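S.,

Sequence below, as promised.
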Amino acid sequence: MPRTLRYTARRLLAGAAMLLALSALVFLLLRAAPGDPVDAYVNPSVAMSPQDMAMLRERLGLDRPLPVQYFAWLRQAVTGDLGFSLQGTGEAVLPLVLSRLGPTMLLMASGLLLAIGLGIAGGVVGAVRRNGAADLSLSVIAFLGISSPAFLTALLGLYLFSVRLRIAPSGGMLTAGAAFSLTDLLAHLALPALLLSIGHTALIMRYTRASMLEVLNQDYVRTARAKGAREFSVIARHALRNALLPVVTLIGSTIGVAIGGAVFIESVFNWPGMGLLMVTAVRARDYPVIMGAALIIGGFVILLNLLTDLAYAVIDPRIKVG
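The prediction came back faster than expected:
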């Protein structure tokens, strides 16, 4: 146990360094983007003289060198103060971002669970029925899934299932004006989660198939069959568990990609999560929200990758972390 704790502590320290580097990079990219940051603070309908703009710049600290501005933001961020949004009522960034984290986690968890279940099942079937009709069909489906960009999949899915077939809501998380119900939530969640899972399902399917084919040729699998073990037991108990380790590695590495896909899905379906918040903030040049959201998302990805690494030892007891 102490070994695991030491490993976890080292990973958390490395994660903190990565968050620091991420915040600095996002800060520099925002400052390098075209346009004046002061424009985000000014109502376009209100005329302001150059003197007023200069005073506003000085009051906001934007006249100071970039390193001074960054460390001033960082000093507040480490205390949990991420500033205030420049839009609407000027809501504090931290509670605003955290309020959007739940819907994004719900969408991502649903999409990834679908991808894991369908991908592993498809990979096992493809390996067991190697070069058969089922394997070839699943290979074609996987190729199409890997080749389809998230934004294209989202738009096509919205057009087909919501506009043409009218079997799924076209957007939102709940029906506007209606009382909350689990059925209504699941109806709105089903299509975005399914579309988010497509690319990940294809990747997990291919990895599972390749790993299963390698494991099925091992001596212990042949020995289990020679001893008269049922085929289902051979596949489930002996082959699949040993084939899961590279799949778990893939799942951990796709978490960040899933967040990128969620940005497109949330934008297309108006899902009130982090992705939609980020897109809205970028359009409005709401720099405090962009910085805060990037920090929270980065921390979330680092934490999930750590949990994925710790899961290796659970799946394969021969692996010792640390």
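The CA atoms of residues 221 and 238 lie 7 Å apart.

Coffee later?
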